[in-house]
Task: inverse folding
């Protein structure tokens, strides 16, 4: 996966290793339909969450806004450029970069008049890869902030959890003693 490889390169970790880990990786698609509602404030839409993926590419098929992200601690509604794709940093990229990239918390509100359709493509490592901070960027100067686990276990744990804020990432965190928080 070229994009993940380039993002890894920016971290000065071995891009090739990251590309290999993503090669033949688990990819999934979620198509979400949001019917219009005259009282959007009463409708859940998609609850706040970060994506468990490495990266997510979002296509807002019919150009109806609704996506909000957390920026500097506050919710910020986004306006898409026509025909643009949105690329979200997911939890796995935050873990891999040992916290340098931040997975974005986001949610979606429904529109009062128009239906909204979005297609999300989630790009993940292969099942036999390990999810954890890149070994060549951690050390005494940069102690690992996240646990390591096999991708298969990561996926199982993720699906056993409620999609809520950044809870998946919190679950991966280690404190300074190396214990789970
Ligand atoms: O509808 C959207 O734009 C985003 C959907 C989303 O966050 C997801 O499927 O994880
Ligand atoms: Fe999402």
Result:
């Amino acid at each position: 996966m070229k994009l993940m490889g380039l993002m890894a390169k920016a971290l000065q970790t071995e891009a090739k290793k990251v590309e290999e880990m993503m090669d033949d990786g688990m990819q999934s698609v979620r198509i979400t339909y949001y019917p219009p509602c005259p009282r959007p404030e009463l409708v859940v839409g998609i609850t706040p969450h970060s994506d468990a993926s490495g990266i997510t590419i979002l296509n807002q098929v019919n150009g109806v806004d609704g996506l909000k992200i957390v920026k500097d601690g506050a919710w910020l509604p986004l306006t898409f450029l026509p025909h643009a794709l949105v690329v979200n940093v997911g939890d796995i990229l935050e873990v891999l970069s040992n916290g340098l990239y931040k997975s974005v918390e986001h949610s979606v509100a429904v529109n009062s008049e128009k239906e909204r359709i979005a297609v999300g493509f989630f790009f993940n490592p292969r099942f036999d890869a390990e999810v954890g901070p890149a070994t060549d960027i951690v050390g005494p100067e940069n102690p690992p902030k996240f646990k390591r686990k096999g991708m298969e276990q990561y996926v199982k744990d993720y699906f056993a959890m409620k999609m809520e804020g950044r809870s998946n990432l919190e679950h991966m965190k280690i404190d300074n003693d190396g214990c789970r928080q």
Notes: The beta strands are 27-34, 46-49, 55-60, 67-71, 74-77, 86-89, 106-108, 116-123, 130-131, 149-150. DSSP finds five helices and ten strands in the chain.
